[in-house]
UniProtKB/TrEMBL annotation, chain B:
It comes from the Eukaryota. The chain crosses the membrane at residues 7-28, 431-452, 464-489, 501-526, 678-695, 707-728, 740-756, 866-891, 903-927, 939-957. It is found in: Endoplasmic reticulum membrane. InterPro entries: Alkaline_phosphatase_core_sf, Phosphodiest/P_Trfase, PIG-G_N, PIGG/GPI7, PIGG/GPI7_C. This is GPI ethanolamine phosphate transferase 2 C-terminal domain-containing protein. Its main location: endoplasmic reticulum. The keyword Membrane applies. GO terms for cellular component: endoplasmic reticulum membrane. Pathway: Glycolipid biosynthesis; glycosylphosphatidylinositol-anchor biosynthesis.
């Protein structure tokens, strides 16, 4: 059972990493002048869109999301709406936090919001896919011993890695090197994406390594 | 020997202060200053040496030049004139250099290659170091003996056009001046036109003796686009034209029979390859110096310019104009300039220069007799006397002139030796003292670290094996070893070390102390190791790790402390250190928020929390439906970190500090502009009222009244100084210094402090009443708050206010509820204190220190109170937070009686780790380009902070004493 889940996770993560890679490379072929630094915002949105699409598709195919009791179309629609609202709320929340960290209030609001969108699509969206718009489940997963499945643990690790990556990414900004990647928010979004990729690699590896110690309460 | 933790920590901190002081003494060489406060004057010039008893003369030789024009081109690099492109850049000057009667040199400027110190060097002939800049913060005028002052005293008429740094340095020295500010670096034409437009009329006139022109344009071009930009050539050609114009005018004015003119073209510093300056790279240091006068021999072709020091210009000009050489000059006259005068005069010039250098050497170096130059000068002076005797006897033979030439050579050698001995003392780091200080500090730090388990135990006492260390054999061997090392270093060293000049008794005490500490260190380490082994069987390390389960907060606190310490190695991180602290503080608040969430939602879902609280926390808000009684408390607890975060975000926009973003507009500037005076007044009133409300709640009624009066006094002081307005005062009153109002506040500050101390003493000696004690403590704290509100600028009062508000809220709703231990509380206080240091508008640059605070309530500058007030207001943020820490920890005593001791220990550790690491970094980076502009100011800030922390720790000791007694 372990092996099967880990294998599924590895392949999912491989697809996601590939989507990030494709989102960087493919537009460069079609759009002239597309580059990570030069047209940072379009890169950022292309990565967000790719990750969003791939996560939704993969998790829907895998069927990890908790089984819903009702199957009526209305219920599904309201679920979808709630997901969208949560997604938007999370963008605003990240925007607010980044502002608190000292981003300029008015001047580069678009850049800040784009970073918030990226962070949301790398973290919140995954929560939505795995756990659904269920706040109680989120609280459970993000408490210390709250993981109840391999996917929960994986979620913890990737989210933490992404956020730490974005956090660390802010460090080079004050250095006076005048490099293109020091411009706000390039280093932070690069940090977040690198953290996310690290999380994708680290999560299966960690779970595989600790599979003897991991015990989950029954669902 | 068992000592309490707080005593132990304080002792260590105080010894560290001594160690750092020794390090600083080695790092910042003391500027060479003559001990005489007066300036050199003609009357105390030495007599012309003469062996025998014939009448000798104290007269100065006749001046060589009638008029001097000094044309200073800022950032003129040596290769702009002497390099391969010199001919195209400055054709006329190049022609003069090659064909006319002139002397040209490459003058070496000393770092820091910044305009102001360089002007000082050019005019005083001394080498102003970094410490000079700090020492002269309070007076912009140059008080040292200098050429301009000497010229003015000799009733020379001086005209100045150019950079207004000169006008600030030499107020009232110029007959006529027009200063242009170098504020707008992007302007490189106006600044120079402002100088040149005066030129035609001035050159026609005859009523001046010295004309000084300082052209800034070239420097500005360098800053904008570097030394290879296309703007350089036109600018240099413009300078060339100016020189041609001056030279032409001087030639046309030249009258037969009168003394000749002298035209000096020089640069204050060069320009690096990127166009900036300040460091010590070759292109920044090398500047051209061209002396043009008909008194010189005519040249026949381009020669390679000789290399001299920039400071050599000052004595040369002084002697050329017939003025005394300024006292602290370390330069020597440029011999070529005097070549055309008589041998007697030449010898006399050299004698005067030598005499002045010799006096300076005697004053500044205790072991001056050992210097080679001293002896050489004496020999030369004696030979000079003999020569004079022959001269007066009317001897005019070949012998006389040969002998004279020999004396001349002797003098020149002596001057070179004297000058190099003097400037060597300036340019060198005193490595021995630095290393001694560093070793000392590190020993203390190791002891502090090794004592951690004991110091943070429930006992809060550290067992120092002093007796066993003092009686052990290694101690005596180590003493012997260190003493012999000391003797060896001091006898072999070529340059003088401060540590070697200490008396033997003192050195022995230091040696004994250091070796005792080393023995203590070893025995503590051995004890710790054996204890660990016994405790944990085979592998002590592994069990430790699994035993200590760190929460996310602990991880953050540790990582933040370590990360901040490491960041000090990069100059940009020092310049932008405030960013580091804001960033860490933000993360800390988020982590606290997560802890709060965990606490209040734990009941619901057994235990909730993970690395990031961000996601769940948002929804915690909506989801949880708590019991009605605890709900308000819960919401307050949840809101507090958010409120703190928002507060911090607002505070950081009050003062933009640092370097990269310092130019951005901030709220402070907006408030201080005159059209927003009403807003500022309202804000001040609001802040003062809020301060009163927050502070008064734990004071006795006497202090409450005093506090109220004091805060009213603060407002009237601000109104008197003109920062804020009274609503009923419409006519604009003349601005006063507000001395009366400020003293009024001081009275209440002293009253509150007195009442607090009285309560404290009573609680300790008579009643042992914990309540009385905490009240006394709080009153002392509120006295400090009142003083800070007086000293803070009006626009900074919100910082004080927010500080109090955050302290109240967090301690009430978070720290009391979440049961953090003393170490965590201390680290959080420290972080907040650091962030508030920058919220106030401070930075790691000396320039942001608000010196005007030293004059609050004083009629004139009085050193001791001014320094005290400035230090207090600069470090108000950290001080208020540490004082709050004492109040908080001692009020929490019922929970843990030893928390004060633990807090003191943690504070000592938090302060000494960065300080110790930083002195190592500075030593390693001592040849870094930014050592004077970035690292040294930070070193001073670090040391000052260490000193203040040691002072606060004393306060901790008195707080900890009572529970033992009672
Ligand atoms: Zn300059
Ligand atoms: Zn400059």
């Amino acid at each position: 059972m372990w092996d099967r889940e880990i294998r599924a996770m590895v392949s999912t993560h491989a697809i996601m990493a590939a989507s990030v890679f494709m989102a960087t490379v493919v537009p460069a072929v079609f759009l002239p002048g597309f580059s990570v630094y030069g047209t940072h915002l379009s890169w950022l949105y292309s990565v967000s869109a790719a990750v969003t699409g791939v996560s939704v598709a993969v998790f829907w195919l895998l069927g990890i999301a908790p089984p819903t009791k009702k199957h009526s179309l209305g219920y599904k629609l309201s679920r979808l709406c709630r997901c969208c609202v949560y997604f938007f709320l999370s963008c605003i929340f990240f925007h607010f936090v980044v502002l608190l960290y000292g981003a300029p209030l008015v001047e580069s609001a678009l850049e800040t919001f784009s970073l918030a969108v990226l962070l949301t699509s790398l973290t919140t969206l995954r929560c939505l896919c795995v756990l659904g718009p269920n706040v109680q489940a989120w609280i459970r997963v993000f408490s210390r011993h709250g993981a109840m499945s391999v996917w929960d643990t994986c979620l913890q690790i990737t989210v933490a890695c992404t956020l730490v990556g974005a956090w660390v990414g802010a460090f080079p900004i004050p250095l006076d090197w005048d490099r293109p990647w020091q411009v706000w928010p390039v280093s932070c979004s690069l940090g977040a994406v690198i953290g996310f990729l690290t999380g994708l690699v680290a999560a299966p590896a960690w779970i595989h390594h600790h599979r003897k110690h991991l015990t989950y309460k029954s669902k | 020997m068992k000592v309490r933790t707080s005593v132990f920590a304080t002792l260590i901190l105080m010894s560290e202060v001594i160690g750092i002081a020794l390090f600083l003494r080695g790092f910042f060489p003391v500027p060479i200053k003559s001990s005489l406060a007066s300036k050199n004057s003609l009357s105390d010039l030495p007599a012309e040496p003469l062996s025998g008893s014939s009448p000798n003369t104290t007269r100065l030789p006749h001046p060589l030049f009638k008029r001097v024009v000094i044309m200073l081109v800022d950032a003129l690099r040596e290769d702009f004139l002497f390099g391969p492109n010199g001919g195209t850049f400055m054709p006329y000057t190049r022609h003069v250099v090659e064909r006319s009667s002139s002397y040209s040199f490459v003058a070496k400027a000393r770092p820091p290659t910044v305009t102001m110190p360089r002007i000082k060097a050019l005019t005083t002939g001394s080498i102003p170091g970094f410490i000079d800049v700090v020492m002269n913060l309070n007076s912009p005028a140059l008080l040292e003996d200098n050429l301009i002052w000497q010229a003015k005293t000799a009733e020379k008429r001086i005209i100045f056009y150019g950079d207004d740094t000169w006008v600030r340095l030499f107020p009232k020295h110029f007959m006529e001046y027009d200063g242009t500010t170098s504020f707008f670096v992007s302007d490189y034409t106006e600044v120079d036109n402002n100088v040149t437009r005066h030129l035609d009329s001035t050159l026609k006139r005859d009523d001046w003796d010295i004309l000084i022109l300082h052209y800034l344009g070239l420097d500005h071009i360098g800053h904008i686009s570097g030394p290879y930009s296309s703007l350089i050539q036109p600018k240099l050609m413009e300078m060339d034209d100016v020189l041609k114009k001056i030279h032409g005018a001087l030639i046309s004015k030249e009258a037969e029979g009168s003394l000749p003119y002298l035209l000096v073209l020089c640069g204050d510093h060069g320009m690096s390859e990127t166009g900036s300056h300040g460091g010590s790279s070759e292109p920044e240091v090398n500047t051209p110096l061209v002396l043009i006068s008909p008194a010189f021999k005519r040249k026949v072709g381009m020669e390679k310019p000789g290399v001299i020091e920039q400071v050599d210009l000052a004595p040369t000009l002084a002697l050329g104009l017939g003025l005394p050489i300024s006292q602290n000059s370390v330069g020597r006259v440029i011999p070529g300039v005097f070549q055309e005068s008589s041998l007697r005069d030449q010898l006399r010039f050299l004698h005067l220069n030598g005499h002045q250098l010799n006096c300076l050497l005697k004053d500044s170096m205790p072991s001056y007799a050992k210097e080679a130059g001293f002896e050489q000068y004496r020999v030369a002076e004696k030979a000079h006397g003999n020569w004079m005797k022959l001269y007066f006897e009317g001897n005019t033979s070949e012998v006389l002139s040969n002998m004279g030439k020999k004396v001349l050579k002797q003098y020149l050698e002596a001057l070179a030796a004297l000058s190099s001995a003097l400037s060597k003392q300036l340019g060198k780091y005193d490595m021995y003292s630095m290393i001694a200080g560093m070793v000392f500090v590190f020993q203390l730090l190791m002891i502090l670290l090794l004592a951690m388990p004991e110091a943070l135990s429930a006992d809060a006492a550290v067992d120092l094996p002093v007796a066993s260390a003092l009686l052990s054999l290694p101690f005596y061997l180590l003493c012997l070893l260190l003493a012999s090392v000391h003797v060896l270093v001091c006898t072999s060293a070529t340059s003088s070390c401060y540590f070697c000049t200490l008396s033997w008794g003192l050195v022995f005490v230091v040696v004994a102390f250091s070796s005792a500490m080393f023995c203590i260190l070893i025995s503590m380490a051995v004890r710790r190791l054996s204890l660990g082994l016994k405790y944990n069987g085979k592998s002590p390390l592994k069990t430790n790790v699994s035993e200590w389960s760190l929460s996310e907060l602990d991880v953050l606190l540790l990582a933040g402390t370590v990360g901040h310490t490491l960041s000090l190695a990069a100059s940009s991180f020092i310049e932008e250190e405030h960013q580091t602290w804001y960033f860490l503080l933000n993360t800390l608040c988020l982590a606290m928020f997560q802890d709060v969430c965990r606490k209040y939602f734990r009941e619901k879902s057994a235990s909730k929390d993970e690395e990031d609280c961000l996601l769940p926390s948002k929804d915690c808000w909506n989801s949880a439906l708590p019991q009605p009684d605890a709900s308000s408390e819960k919401w307050l607890a949840l809101a507090t970190p958010i409120f703190t975060l928002v507060c911090c975000r607002l505070l950081r926009s009050i003062n933009q500090t640092g370097v990269q973003w310092a130019h951005l507009p901030d709220v402070g500037h907006w408030l201080n502009s005159s059209e927003h005076r009403t807003v500022l007044s309202l804000l001040t009133v609001f802040c003062l009222v809020l301060t009163y409300l927050l502070v008064q709640r734990r004071c006795s009624w006497v202090s409450k009244v005093a506090l109220a009066f004091g805060l009213v006094g603060v407002y009237s002081y601000r109104a008197a100084v003109g920062n804020v307005i009274f609503p009923w005062q419409h006519s604009s009153r003349t601005m006063s210094k507000g001395t009366v109002e400020a003293r009024f506040v001081y009275v209440f500050v002293l009253g509150i402090l007195f009442s607090g101390t009285k309560d404290l003493l009573r609680s300790q000696i008579i009643t042992a009443d914990a309540k009385l004690k905490s009240r006394g403590l709080w009153e002392i704290y509120s006295g400090l708050v009142l003083l800070a509100s007086l000293l803070f600028r009006a626009h900074n009062l919100p910082v004080l206010c927010c500080c109090l508000l955050i302290q109240t809220l967090i301690s009430q709703f978070i720290w009391k509820k979440l049961h953090y231990d003393a170490a965590q509380i201390t680290i959080m206080h420290y972080w907040f204190g650091q962030a508030f240091f920058y919220f106030q508008g401070n930075s790691n640059n000396i320039a942001t220190i608000d010196i005007s605070v030293g004059f609050v309530g004083l009629e004139s500058y009085v050193e001791a109170p001014a320094i005290f007030l400035t230090a207090l207001s600069t470090y108000a943020g950290p001080l208020l937070w540490t004082c709050h820490l004492v109040c908080y920890l001692s009020s929490e005593r019922h929970r843990s009686p030893v928390s004060v001791g633990h807090g003191c220990y943690c504070l000592a550790l938090l302060r000494s780790v960065p300080a110790a690491v930083y002195i190592v970094l500075v030593t390693v980076l001592r040849y870094h380009l930014f050592i004077w502009s970035v690292f040294s100011p930070k070193l001073l800030y670090e040391s000052m902070h260490l000193l203040l922390t040691a002072g606060v720790c004393l306060f901790f000791i008195t707080m900890e004493q009572s529970p033992r007694k009672s």
